[in-house]
Amino acid sequence: MARSPNDVLRVAVIGAGGRMGSAVCTAIAADPDCELVAQVRSGDGLDAVLDAGADVAVEFTLPGSVKANTSWLLERGVHTVVGATGLGDDDLADLRAATGPANCFVAPNFAIGAVLLMRFAAQAAAHLDHAEIVELHHDRKADAPSGTALRTARMIAAARATTPPVPGPDGHPARGDVIEGVCVHSVRLPGLVASQEVVFGGPGQTLTIRHDSIDRSSFMPGVLLAVKRVGSLPGLTVGLESLL
User: Fold this and answer.
1) Angle at 207 between CA 204 and CA 212, to 5 degrees
2) DSSP letter string over 225-244?
């Protein structure tokens, strides 16, 4: 049965025991347009999502479980918002194929400022070919480079007029990971949440664009926006910028 526009959206959170999942639960519970109907923690089965009659599930687990969880939810008709990282192009293609019974929204970063950083970086890359990315996250982050850094590098690569050679010794580990010709350096330290800067260089000048998430509350407006819109976005949608 189709939902009325005035109905409260019934939301389940997968990965509710984690720091991001816990923050999502708090944000969902506080939103008058949403009802938190299920909190699934590590070791719990996903059947609780169906038992609770959730319209939308928010998936914030680990790279090793996100794809299987999301596919399971989509095949059973639950719209799914994915915030976990670790999904490659082949994984996204598989999730796109699993949509139909329900829609899927995937974003490497839900902070609106981070999305603006990526957009500004792509604009700058059309004029300044040389760029490097430094991303800084808390010491418990499961992946490196971050999904945001990977997406930023690919957006820079797509916007460049030319691809300059990577400076420095070829293949030297101190130069970071090279993503489509863009060096990406990952920092993992306690006390951090999420930060990223993109440094562009040209003759006689540099340009630095930086975004800092000081608290996980920075991600919640984007998560809520995706939760409320995913039902109207057929198939698979990638990136919060598509909603801004």
Assistant:
1) 155
2) HHHHHGGGS-SEEE-GGGG-
Q: What is the DSSP code (8-state) at residue 205? A: E
- Residues identified as active-site: 137, 141
Give this prediction's pTM: 0.84
Helix axes 112-125, 220-229, angle to 10 degrees: 90
**Token pair of 97, please?**
């194929």
Cis omega (within 30 of 0) for bond into 5: no
Beta-carbon count within 10 A of 94 CB:
15
Name the residue type at position 16: A
pLDDT digits (tens, 9 = 90+) for 7-47: 899 999 999 999 899 999 999 999 999 999 999 998 788 99
CA–CA dist 91, 98 (Å, integer) = 11
Residue 213's φ and ψ, nearest 5 degrees, are -95, 110
Q: What is the pLDDT of residues 82-139, one digit of tens each?
A: 987 778 889 999 999 999 999 999 998 999 999 999 999 999 999 999 999 999 999 9
Pairing of β 9-14 and β 56-59: parallel
Give me 92's structure tokens.
Answer: 């996204």
List domains and CATH numbers for the chain.
9-106+217-243 (3.40.50.720), 112-213 (3.30.360.10)
CA 244 – CA 226 distance, rounded (Å): 10
* Residues 42/14, Cβ–Cβ less than 8 Å: no
